[in-house]
Design goal:
With about 325 residues, the protein is of the alpha/beta class. About 40% of the residues lie in helices and about 20% in strands. It has 12 helices and 14 strands. Helix 3 crosses helix 5 and helix 5 crosses helix 12.
Length: about 325
């Protein structure tokens, strides 16, 4: 397993800088490119694979809904992107990266197909299909009858967390999560974690809408929402908390430390994604591992089936997840 020392060596920075960046230390003055190098090094060292030679000379347009700066706020998408790039390099596939709006404006050039990473509406999927008929969506499925898609099973991931809490005797469970929108649009997208949290606990007569807090998937909102929950429920604190992603969980842990709430003694916490920073938190994060690098690799393989084998029937791959229990939960 990679250490912070390994990350520091790969990124060419000090061990102290790595520690402070991975812990989202807001007092640290460091450039965005340096942060990017550290986060990418941390992600790459988790799944570095040997290169496999392949004479293929295909070209892929990787279309993101996040800019690289926005990506630093949610390492989930960085990990998917790195999985795509690793697979392309292993298969000697040329790739060019775009943000959605600039891609629509400039077009795919000579790319054989598109891998679209992030949340895309049906209308945006149609706009991409006008640029190329061969598309694979990662993390969204605008139309499973027409387009290939690779998604994570967040519904099952949520059920695993909640069932674990119930097995441990928890009956008062809170939720902190985020809402996303399609790029350049304002309407929020329904989140499968929040939806499943509602349906799973409602069926067991344990759902309390007052214990659901939503914002954006950032450290800042995780800390702010956790602080809000603590102010409102300090005298009757829920015993368990499900956080929709690890990035928000970093902020939640910060707020819990500031309010001297012990984790997991006073509050058991589990989040989602298992990005590289999870094991470096204090306490280390219990989380549901989403196989983001495999999602990226699978997207490349699906696109190559379309390009080289002429497959025209769409496929949807729904990735399994694994609950990993560490120090933040019982």
């Amino acid at each position: 397993m990679a250490t912070m020392k390994d990350i520091a060596a790969k990124a060419g920075v000090s061990l102290a800088t790595v520690s402070r960046v991975l812990n989202y230390d807001e007092t640290l003055s460091v450039t965005e490119p340096t942060k990017k190098k550290i986060f990418e090094a941390a992600e790459e060292l988790e799944y570095k694979k040997g290169k496999r030679k392949n004479p293929a000379t295909s070209s892929v347009a990787i279309v993101h809904w996040y800019t690289e700066k926005e990506e630093l706020e949610d390492l989930y998408y960085m990990s998917i992107r790195l999985g795509i790039e690793e697979r392309c390099q292993a298969k000697e596939i040329h790739f060019v990266k775009y943000v959605y709006d600039e891609f629509i404006e400039n077009g795919p050039g000579k790319a054989d197909g598109i891998i679209a990473v992030g949340k895309f509406s049906f209308e945006q999927a149609r706009a991409l299909s006008r640029q190329s008929p061969r598309i694979v969506f990662v993390d969204s499925s605008p139309d499973s009858e027409e387009f290939d898609a690779v998604t994570a099973n967040f519904e099952k991931a949520t059920e695993k967390v909640l069932q674990h809490f119930l097995d441990q005797g928890h009956e008062t469970i809170a939720y902190i999560g985020g809402r996303e929108t399609y790029r350049l649009e304002a309407e929020p997208i329904e989140d499968p974690r929040e939806r499943t949290f509602h349906s799973f606990l409602t069926a067991r007569h344990l759902y309390d809408p007052a214990l659901v807090y939503t914002g954006t998937f950032t450290v800042r909102d995780g800390q702010q929402l956790m602080g809000q929950l603590l102010e409102e429920y300090r005298e009757r604190l829920p015993t368990a908390l499900f956080v929709a992603n690890d990035t928000m969980a970093v902020g939640c842990l910060r707020a819990l430390h500031e309010h001297r709430v012990r984790v997991p003694e006073d509050l058991s916490l589990i989040s989602v994604n298992d990005v590289s920073i999870s094991k470096y938190m204090y306490p280390s994060l219990s989380t549901v591992k989403v196989y983001t690098e495999t999602m990226g690799e699978t997207a490349v393989d699906l696109l190559m089936e379309q390009v080289h084998e002429g497959r025209s029937v769409s496929k949807r791959v729904n990735m399994a997840t694994t609950l990993i229990l560490r120090g933040s939960s019982e």
